Amino acid sequence: MSKFDNDKVIPRYMVIAVVLTLIGVAVIGKAFYIMTAKKQYWTDVADRLKRDSVSVKPKRGNILSCDGQLMATSIPEYKIFMDFKAGGEEKDSIWKVKVDSICMGLHEIFPQKSAEEFKKHLEEGHQKQSQHWPIWPRRIDYNTYTEVKQLPLFRMSKYKSGFHEEEFNARRRPFGSLGERTIGSLFGAKDSARLGLELSYDSLLRGTPGLTNRRKVLNKYMNIPVTLPVDGCDIVTTIDVNMQDLAERAVIEELKLIGGDLGVAILMEVETGDIKAIVNMTRCPDGEYREIKNNAVADLREPGSVFKTASMLVALDDGVVDTTYTVNTGGGVYPMHGREMKDHNWRRGGYGTISLPRILEVSSNIGVSRIIDDKYGNRPERFIEGIYRTGLAADLKLPIKGYARPHIRMPEKDKYGHWTNWSKTALPWMSIGYETQIPPISTVTFYNAIANDGIMMRPRFVKCVMKDGKVIAEFPPEKVMERRIAKPQTIKTMQTILEHVVSQGLGKKAGSRMFKVAGKTGTAQIAEGGGYKTGIVKYWLSFAGYFPANNPRYSCIVCLKKSGLPASGGGMSGVVFHHIAEGVMARNLKLDVKDAHDTTSICIPDVKDGNILDASYALRKLGIQTNQSWGGSYANGNPIWGYAERQSSSVALRQVELKKGITPSVIGMGAKDAVYLLESHGLKVKLHGRGKVKSQSYTAGKPIIQGSECILSLE
What we know:
Layout: H1 6-36, H2 39-48, E1 51-56, E2 63-64, E3 70-82, H3 88-109, H4 115-128, E4 133-134, E5 140-141, H5 142-149, H6 158-161, E6 163-172, H7 180-183, E7 185-187, E8 192-195, H8 196-200, H9 202-206, E9 210-217, E10 220-227, E11 234-237, H10 241-258, E12 262-269, E13 275-283, E14 289-290, H11 295-298, H12 308-318, E15 326-328, E16 333-336, E17 339-342, E18 353-355, H13 356-361, H14 365-376, H15 380-389, H16 426-431, H17 440-451, E19 462-467, E20 470-474, H18 488-504, E21 518-528, E22 536-547, E23 554-563, H19 569-587, E24 610-611, H20 612-621, E25 625-626, E26 641-646, E27 650-655, H21 671-680, E28 684-689, E29 693-696, E30 709-714
Parallel strand pairs: 2-11, 25-27, 28-30
Antiparallel strand pairs: 1-9, 2-3, 3-4, 3-5, 3-6, 7-8, 9-10, 11-19, 12-13, 12-23, 13-14, 15-18, 16-17, 19-20, 21-22, 22-23, 24-26, 26-27, 29-30
Helix pairs in contact: 3-4, 10-19, 12-14, 12-15, 12-18
């Protein structure tokens, strides 16, 4: 017999099956209903819950000076907007009441626009029910943003007020335009490097963007970080802010004085090649001087007479001449292959016969060109090879985008033995600084090598890269060439000649009475607008050298461009060099304290009244004579009170007898002795000021009432 009663169980199963079937049909029906009738509703819900992957910008790294001062950094800037749909009726009612005060507040913050103009502009956005209506068209800084945020309505949350902002990372230079073209800049809001070190080291400064998921819930966004951004690294430059400021001011002052169009200065550390200052000043249409282009590294120009140093260095190093070699420069005009070579004093009769050192001292065009033409005329390529040995044509591989490589052409012949890029006059004029194209940075690097005993250092702009205060990459000083630019004896000879150029030649104005300077002047004509005869003739004035000459620490080049005469490399660029050199050396001047001692006089100090036993002890230690006509000691509990008289070579200490119960005079005493003396007599003392006692409220000689107050005024 079956354990189960089928008549009872089967109906129950049937009921369950029917119920489950009905539930299934209901689920399918509901799903169909949602997929059709409610499709749009749930699509809108999905949109509200939409997730976005948003890139998070990292903070751009800083650019620092050699001593850690900020030269470029990122700060937040804002654009402000109104969402007129946010807040509903509550916001609208507040808006109607407060719109006038809001517009008046905006006018006070942004006076360029009247309150009526603000109201008209904002009411237009209100009528359009714009959700992103700009309140002010330009970016504002954080302080201005906080001022706007305090206005009525705007101080409420953005979901109630509709006031919201967009944040940007703006690049700022705390020292303004100082070294602007070298430090560099960014393209507006794009955080895209434009030029200078900002561009060269953009990959390090930029950092790595992060990623966050943004999810909208109940009209609010929730940010869920996925990858955190990695902030950019800081770079430490070789620029010295004080030296940069000094060089800029010196260049601008001279440009204003001579009416110059362009000024360049580069200050370089001899041993390391560190660029301590680099100046590029161009006169703008409004008459002000600003950095428009990095002419110091990008301008290819005929260097003029500063090139003569390289020409003579090659001749001396090749042994074709020595310092006793003489040249007849005649009356200042000499025919060179159908053209006339002239010295700057040709109207005054020239220099006649002069030695090689004197040729550089007076910057004789004839002297230099005759030596080079006589010794290398048949093989000009040998001279150019010598110039290449000096490193003047080397690629310096600077970390500044747009830098120019020097262009010094090598003579070439065709298969028939004819010159293809050369002429008879090319060598003489090249030897004095024409027919070559050299940027100022290459010229100062060459002179720096002479100062550095022939070792040419690559100009260094960045010392290291830092992250979170730790150095992660270093850029040590680097040589341009492994070998010296000339033999050691040749370098020593040229160092002596360059020193004489300043001490007894045309470079006197670059010198200093405080230390020795070595260098070379340069004046070159620049043809603009059609050539030297038909165009506008301008002058490129230079002085390149180093200081102090007996122990070189810095090399420097100054180049000025001006129209018309007078034009003098030594008298104009040399003056700027002088100001830079003296300013730099003054910053490093250290004097021994012994230098301040005047042996012809005896220093007798002022001595305060009071405990003369202490005064006597201090004066004896200083080697100053005192009288000993008084007695007493601390051991006997008897401080010796008195006053001091300053004499010609000694100090007389006079003892004062104190009477018990009578207020003593403490005028002229220090606070310590005055307080001790009065309180030991039973008075309470209060002090005002510092220094010596000038007055006492409890008069001297007055009987003392124990516990009375005495106020002392000190000055």
